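## Example record

The block below lists the input lines for one assembly entry, exactly as stored, with component labels intact.
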Amino acid sequence: MNFYAIKAIYLFEMARTWRTLMQSIASPVLSTSLYFIVFGSAIGSRMASIDGVSYGAFIVPGLIMLSILTESISNASFGIYMPKFSGTIYELLSAPISALETVIGYVGAAATKSVIIGIIILVTARLFVDFSIQHPFWMIAFLVLTSITFSLFGFIIGIWADSFQKLQVVPLMIVTPLAFLGGSFYSINMLPPFWQTVALFNPVVYLVSGFRWSFFGVADVGVGLSLAMTLVFMLTCLAAVWWIFRTGYKIKA
Amino acid sequence: MKPLESPHMPRPTGASDPIITVSSLSKTYASGFQALKTVDLTIRRGEIFALLGPNGAGKTTLISIVCGIVNPSTGQVTADGHDIIRDYRAARTKIGLVPQELTTDAFESVWATVNFSRGLFGKPPNPAYIEKILKDLSLWEKRDSKIMTLSGGMKRRVMIAKALSHEPTILFLDEPTAGVDVELRRDMWNMVRALRENGVTIILTTHYIEEAEEMADRIGVINKGEIILVEDKNVLMQKLGKKQLTLHLQSPLSTLPTELQSESLQLSADGTELVYTFDTQSNETGIAGLLRRLNEQGIDFKDLQTSESSLEEIFVSLVRGRP
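Predicted structure tokens for the full assembly:
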């Protein structure tokens, strides 16, 4: 195992985060805080509680998950896309480093950043709404698993994209709608039966549901199913990354 | 720029000891373009090998395959005895690459990017060694500068520093002096020689024939994906080099007298010069006979000069199929 290479990539990516602190951390924290002010404090105070949880508190896990998904994808995709764009990927391809080590470096850094953002948003949310965490271990587990899984997904997008526009297409056109319709702001039990069934095809439902369960002990779907679906998506992404490096898809002629 | 040294680099061993072997290597891209057709090549340990070829000849593809950037279609390559695919870690650890394009991380500092390269190649941090490289390449004063603020020449040096950061024994320089000024070009030549003195095998591609003529021990010519010639530079110059004798005539000639007509002798367009081409390797150059025949024809000349084919002329002849 080339630990020095993993460390080099990881620190390089984290250095980029610290260099762009406003964009990397302050911006998502600010935008999520605005959600809390509008939907939590302002509108939330006029809404009924859901499953015994105040609306302001109810949306906390969903909003954290929304940020985690978008930031994980954004960080990981940008991290691997930039070397492709600038041409510095030649160094990565010519280095004595395996696909696994490359992925650990890039995805590890992107996931770390997402976890940091998630925790900052969590602390920020506590300033606006009152809530407690019933299952802290599982909260951290879902946070880390989701960060890793969607960083892997972002890594795949970064490899696939050959323009900045493509880099934005999946996060903006697919992931954000799925996150908004995945129960971030409501329980899918509030939907008509037909749309409840449709919602079950949205993978984000399982992530938000599991994460919310770790906070309040209530969930739209069983927590075991949420965990299983997260792991399935992670394994799917790992398989795709393995295939990419095996074939050299979009990175090696 | 000071001569580069590395405490870890071995002195050159035998000149015929192969360090890179390329066997039956071919590459056809997905588009169907065949960039390499069954290339066989051996690079000797400790030599400076210049790979010449016109644009699109396959130089960069060949280098990219050896370095692991491009997958070969068929064939085998070993670097210092290690197969570049089966034993890629050991092979790549030996190799440093300075690509043609100035591809750097614009927002990183010089110090950070060179240390990053060292780590990427699996080497533990060694600030003293990195400091030495940067000082040797006259980059030490710029170590905290962002790369985007550097001049083109400085960026080129950063690329070299990155390639040397993991102490490679094989260094590929793909058009190392493209777009750099004369002074820096000379500096780089000195640096390359110093690296060779310290046991580093250098493979360079260049469009500047002068560069190959100045530095290379051996020269390979690649054209249309095939190695058409590999030869010691001096032998090549002797073998293919032709000399020309130019006679400046006392009085212009309208035509060449029939008695003098031959493929080797040409009359200039204005009739004031006779140009005689002869083989430097031949025992009989024919100069004495020519001068005698000129005397018999009553053709006087007021001056004469000889000139030798440059490597550039040899190269042009080779790629045009007229050796």
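Residues 3-247 of chain A form one domain. The radius of gyration of chain A is 19 Å.
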